[in-house]
Write a structure and sequence with these properties.
Oligomer: single chain
Radius of gyration: 17 Å
Number of strands: 9
Largest sheet: 4 strands, mixed
Strand content: 25-35%
Helix content: 25-40%
Shape: elongated
């Protein structure tokens, strides 16, 4: 695949997942090699294995960090300090996007930001709520009451 074709397919996407690209590819191995080459050339940014962003000069839509946080580890949702900032309970900015997940805890340090994931029992996950932004991207966040409960409990 040539760069121009690739750009036509993905320039409207804020986050590029390689599994989406490889699904309809004639030669998935060649496309994987091409993604690595484009990342080395600085045309795309690899955030995690299989998750890419277009470089700023090629990007037509801004990266919405809560949306990226929900893609890095699935399932997950924004919680704790970042959710309290979103709801207006913390006046200063929180630089780390803290999410909870039923999967393993982890941390991703990327050019876009720092994404922290904390383990949550599956029985506790059902109390999240959804919010949408104007550019048709969605992400999950928890209610402010649940944030306070989790912070006080830990």
């Amino acid at each position: 695949m040539k760069w121009e074709e690739f750009l036509k397919q993905v320039n409207h996407l804020p986050v590029i997942e390689s599994e989406m690209l490889l699904t309809g590819a004639v030669d998935p191995a060649a496309l994987s090699v091409q993604l690595v080459r484009w990342a080395k050339a600085g045309k795309i940014i690899q955030v995690k294995r299989g998750v890419y962003l277009l470089s700023e000069i090629y990007r037509k839509i801004d990266v919405y960090e809560p949306h990226l946080a929900s893609i890095l580890i699935k399932p997950s949702y924004i919680s704790l300090e970042k959710a309290l900032e979103f709801h207006g309970f913390i006046p200063e900015g929180v630089p780390v996007y803290t999410s909870v997940t039923t999967k393993r805890s982890g941390r991703f340090i990327t050019p876009v930001g720092v994404f922290d994931y904390r383990h949550l029992l599956p029985s506790q996950k059902k109390l999240s709520s959804t919010f949408f932004i104007s550019k048709r991207l969605k992400s999950l966040t928890t209610s402010w009451k649940k944030c306070v409960f989790k912070i006080v409990k830990s």
